[in-house]
Each structure stands twice: as structure tokens, then as C-alpha cells.
Design brief:
It is a single chain. The chain folds into 2 domains: 2-107, Sandwich (Immunoglobulin-like), CATH 2.60.40; 111-152, no CATH class. The chain is 18% helix and 38% strand. The chain has 4 helices and 11 strands, in the order ααββββββααβββββ. It has a 5-stranded antiparallel sheet with strand order 3-2-5-6-7. A 3-stranded mixed sheet has the order 4-1-8, with no helix packed on it. It has a 3-stranded antiparallel sheet with strand order 10-9-11, with no helix packed on it. It starts with a helix and ends with a strand. Mean pLDDT is 76; it is low at 4-12, 82-86 and 113-118.
Length: 152
């Protein structure tokens, strides 16, 4: 009986020791060089990585001049390895969680992007004109198809 209690005591908190209470999260954007602001007060320029508490959701605002600002969320989810190693203490410290999605990859809707990709904002429209100026089309939530380019 005493041995069983000792084993349980040793196993409680294993995920906290092995995995830690913080996790490195990464954000990638297309195009690169966007400002990434996290709800925990940290900021970086994409592509980038920060450390954050495993058990707290992160709201993420991603912005770049000439692009529409986008918001994303990373949520704590139970991690397979953390659950197997975890005890009651690990749920309290958050060591049994992983923030997901990780890495977070976001394609920004930018107009006049030097890469040549022009994308309408989600649910928005963009007017596209043919190379000879003879035809105008409207694209909803997408990019101008070749050989069209955005108007203006």
C-alpha cells in the first residue's frame, strides 16, 4: 500500500516536469513581415515564435500595411503525451495542454502586393480589368484571374 501511494505521488505532476507549463508557438504569414500582436501582450514580426502559457487561449491580430487585418485564435487542447503523463497537478498548471493550431499560418488579403497576388477580403469583392482594358469582372472573396489585374 505504501509503495502504491509513493508511485502515485511520483507520477503526479510528471507532465509539468517533462513538458513544462509554457509552449513555443509559431506564426507564419503570406506575405511575410506582418506585425503579429498576441492577447498576452507579446508582439513579433512574421515569421516568428513566442512562448506562451499552454492553458490560456491566445487572440492574435495580424496586420501589414496594404493588407486587411486578420484575427485568429490559438486554443488549448488536451495533448496525448501530456494526458498520459499527467496527474491532477498537471491540469492545474496547464502542462497537459497544447495550443492549436501550431504553427498558425495566415494568408493576408493584400491589394497591390508586389508578389502579383491580389486577393479580395473574405466575403468582399474586387474589381478586375483585363490587360487591354476592354473587360471588367468582379471577383468575390478571391483573386483576379490571369490575365486580369485589380482596378485602380
Amino acid at each position: 500500500m505504501i509503495i502504491a501511494i509513493g508511485v502515485i505521488a511520483l507520477l503526479t505532476g510528471c507532465a509539468t516536469i517533462v513538458r513544462g507549463t509554457e509552449q513555443e508557438v509559431a506564426v507564419n504569414t503570406a506575405p511575410v513581415g506582418a506585425t503579429v500582436q498576441f492577447s498576452n501582450g507579446q508582439t513579433c514580426t512574421s515569421p516568428c515564435k513566442i512562448k506562451s502559457a499552454r492553458n490560456q487561449s491566445l487572440m492574435i491580430n495580424i496586420s501589414k500595411p496594404g493588407c486587411h487585418t486578420q484575427t485568429a485564435t490559438m486554443m488549448p487542447t488536451l495533448a496525448g503525451g501530456g494526458v498520459l503523463l499527467g496527474g491532477l497537478i498537471d491540469y492545474g498548471t496547464g502542462a497537459v495542454y497544447d495550443l492549436q493550431p501550431n504553427p498558425l499560418t495566415v494568408t493576408l488579403a493584400c491589394n497591390g502586393d508586389p508578389s502579383g497576388i491580389y486577393v479580395a477580403p473574405a466575403g468582399g469583392t474586387i474589381n478586375c480589368v483585363s490587360a487591354d482594358g476592354a473587360r471588367i469582372i468582379q471577383v468575390v472573396g478571391g483573386e483576379c484571374p490571369a490575365p486580369f489585374k485589380p482596378m485602380g
